[in-house]
Structure prediction request, 193 residues.
Amino acid sequence: MRRLQRFLAVLREDLEAARTRDPAARTAVEVALGYPGVHAVWAYRVAHRMWREPGLRLPARLLSQFARFLTGIEIHPGAQLGRRLFIDHGMGVVVGETAMVGDDVVLFHGSTLGGKSMKKGKRHPTLGDGVVVGAGAKILGPVWIGDGARIGANAVVVKDVPAGAVAVGVPAEVRVAPHPPEAVWAEDPAMYI
Prediction:
């Protein structure tokens, strides 16, 4: 019973995260029924739970691929996603197997948390809490993106980004001095997407 209550609390938290971060979201019902980013995160949560059981890895992978078919968002069940992840629009988002995503992260459509190596081991990025990844941005390799950092639209990040910084360009460069992570939602994140 407690597991079910915790699971329902997480689902409600995901709905509230979408409503908080998307000014177009009107009701929790609208988000629950019509937001593919939320659907992809929910499917991931089930698939990730299955992935942790060695005998369920194939069904977990098949569930993640079915969710990809339905939503256009591919999240490997081995990835580690934090709480209140919001994927806005979502189409084309890819999150690799060894990616680690902190709490309160926003990923915009077309963003990739991918690898640059075919070797086993940690090959995908780690995102801290409160990170915003702009539309079409690619974060490649086992890089670290600090808390509250912003990745600009279509940036290609192949090096670490410090907490609170803004990275833009190809290859991405830190263009704005870091700001305190607690100011993350004080400014309009749309200026980076």
